Amino acid sequence: MLLDGLRRGGLVVDTKSSATDMVTEIDRAAEALIADALLGARPEDGLVGEEGTNRPTRSGVRWVVDPIDGTTNYLYGHPGFAVSIAAELVHPDPDEGATTVAGVVWVPLLDEVYTATLGGGAHRNNESIGCSTVVDPAGALVASGFAYDPQRRRRQAEVLTRILPRVRDLRRMGAASVDLCSVACGRVDAFYERGLQRWDHAAGALIAREAGATVASLDGGPPSGDCILAANPDLWPTLSTMLIDAGADEA
Ligand code: IPD
Ligand code: CA
Ligand code: CA
């Protein structure tokens, strides 16, 4: 469906939270397609999707779906967009949250399917992958992203001006799930972003973690919209301190 939409062109485009937060007819149709397939096969499961699906779970399993992560890239035919799907086990005690047990990120234009299961390692197109071993931030290629709110973007860009002189270089590729998979396969050394939603990071975070990365918020807690930093365990602490010093936890 995504590739057909790209070939067809002339997509109906709408905006959501801001003028730069785009959604196409394909985002919505792809979410419906995924929800129908998953819930058709597993009717007791829950599902939460970026485009509004919110079905409570009766089985304890909940799917977390971003039908197109990187919609801006998709609109331009830029290869950095993906479908991101995670399965999580919802704990009976709501305070304990949920544990992601499986994740898949498909990057169609790169012909790459990243997968992970809890404790089962991470794979790209069925081959085992691992994160990089760079320890010194000065030698680290760091990916990041920007929220859609213009004021927040300005603050996030200011943080990057403090980080850029201290790392190898920065990348802003346009899809958090792909960024996390890039950490998982060593295509970048680290990724951090503030303001993500669960569907942006649930699958990619498991894939990065299963590839050996530490994935946590800047204070070391579970990754959340408040901040996610993924890097190998030797790079993570120094990068986290550098980001906090640069004000990343407030941007
Ligand atoms: C966005 C992408 C982007 C990130 C934004 C996300 P969307 O998702 O993951 O890289 O910087 O924070 O909202 O809107 O294209 O699904
Ligand atoms: Ca997204
Ligand atoms: Ca999306």
Please tell me about this protein's structure.
The strands form three sheets. This protein has an eight-stranded mixed β-sheet. It has a five-stranded mixed β-sheet with strand order 12-11-13-15-14, with helices on both faces. It is globular, with a radius of gyration of 17 Å. Helix 5 runs parallel beside helix 6 (about 200-210). It has seven helices and 15 strands. The protein starts with a helix and ends in a 6-residue tail after the last helix. The mean pLDDT is about 95. It has helices at about 1-10, 25-40, 70-75, 150-165, 175-185, 200-210, 235-245; strands at about 15, 20-25, 45-50, 55, 60-70, 80-90, 100-105, 110-115, 120-125, 125-130, 140-145, 170, 190-195, 215, 230. About 30% of the residues lie in helices and about 25% in strands. By secondary structure, it is an alpha+beta fold.
